[in-house]
């Protein structure tokens, strides 16, 4: 069977007419040569034979021209180890930041001068907790935890008038004791401790306050600070009781810096001469309570402002 030639398109763009896809494939030319109408729904057998090879050829050429999709590279395994931080590029030299300087320690001469000034201003300092005997002093110190001395004195004046011994305190009872000290913080727990320590003094120490730190610390509600206060004020022992005021003065002035009250206590015991040990505890407490205040220290009236190592002092 003869193959029908495809119609060559006109070279002139202006004279060109719209060409349908079937004409480009040679179908119309075949129909014209065979006398078949192009609008017919079916094609003759020989027309289909021409159409199919031509379309297959066109499809094969298009497929050959289509670029192949690039193959995906296998994903690299994740490196769980942290990447090393890149070192910054070397730049101009800058001086290293210096840590704040630690205050210069006090010399023995400066410590002696400071305590001499305190002694001259107040030769015989006294504690501000009111008491009648070692037992009432012990009770007052136990009640003063997380409370002011003025508040404790207000409550104990009437209490000690009716109960100034362990036997009288035990007879008073915990319920009635609470009525006397209810203006003090944590009064319920403190009343329980006072009754318990009174019973311990009667049973274990013959109703007397013991004279060693370990024995006093064994009593309910009593700690190291309580033992040091009682030993110093009742028995004249050379002890340093570190409360919030002494702790602040020791660190702020640089006299005995420490992170804990025990550190400050041991530091003060090392540097304070023996001739000042009896009253050093009271001088430091009074100085912290009335001069070296926590929020607004009164540096202008401080007796040792020229010796103090605090960098923020106002004079």
What does this structure look like?
Mean pLDDT is 81; it is low at 40-46. The chain contains 13 helices and no strands. It is extended. It has 2 domains: 7-59, no CATH class; 108-301, Endonuclease III, domain 1 (Orthogonal Bundle). The protein starts with 20 loop residues before the first helix and ends in a 25-residue tail after the last helix. With 315 residues, it is mostly helical.
Could you write a compact summary of the structure shown?
This protein is mainly alpha-helical and 315 residues long. The chain contains 13 helices and no strands. The longest helix is centred in the first third of the chain and has 21 residues, at 45-65.
Shape: extended
Count up the helices: 13
Distance between the termini: 122 Å
Number of beta strands: 0
**What value does the average pLDDT take?**
81
- Which quaternary structure do these chains form? single chain
CATH topology of the largest domain: Endonuclease III, domain 1
